[in-house]
């Protein structure tokens, strides 16, 4: 993945705010759980989703993530819902 390319792309409806003091690398230990249309998917599947196909994105953190997804949600959950065709 080309981090520079993706960091410079703008996606309508998404704002990324950084404190400019720290960064966190997503290692295997701290990657979020990805859910598309209720099904667990890999980062590779996420990369194939076209922004125009996305209806909404929910980000669950902390107890809301573990309450809904158990241990798999301990690093957060990104739920993606696609537009109906």
UniProtKB/TrEMBL annotation:
Predominantly, its location class is membrane
Write down the PROSITE patterns for this protein, in alphabetical order.
Answer: TONB_DEPENDENT_REC_3
Residue ranges spanning the membrane: these are none
Q: Which UniProt keywords apply?
A: Cell outer membrane, Membrane, Transmembrane, Transmembrane beta strand, Transport
* Protein name, as recorded: TonB-dependent receptor plug domain-containing protein
**Protein family according to the UniProt entry:** Belongs to the TonB-dependent receptor family.
**Has UniProt tagged this entry with the keyword Transmembrane?**
yes
Q: How does it sit in the membrane?
A: Multi-pass membrane protein
Q: Which GO terms describe its cellular component?
A: cell outer membrane
Subcellular localization: Cell outer membrane
Q: Which InterPro entries match?
A: Plug_dom_sf (IPR037066), TonB-dep_rcpt-like (IPR039426)
């Amino acid at each position: 993945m080309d981090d520079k390319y993706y960091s410079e792309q703008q996606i309508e409806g998404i704002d990324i705010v950084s404190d400019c003091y720290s960064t966190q690398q997503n290692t295997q230990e701290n990657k979020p759980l990805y859910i598309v249309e209720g099904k667990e998917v890999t980062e590779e599947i996420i990369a194939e989703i076209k922004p125009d196909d996305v209806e909404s994105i929910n980000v669950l953190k902390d107890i809301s993530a573990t309450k809904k997804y158990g241990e798999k949600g301990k690093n957060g959950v990104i739920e993606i819902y696609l537009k109906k065709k």
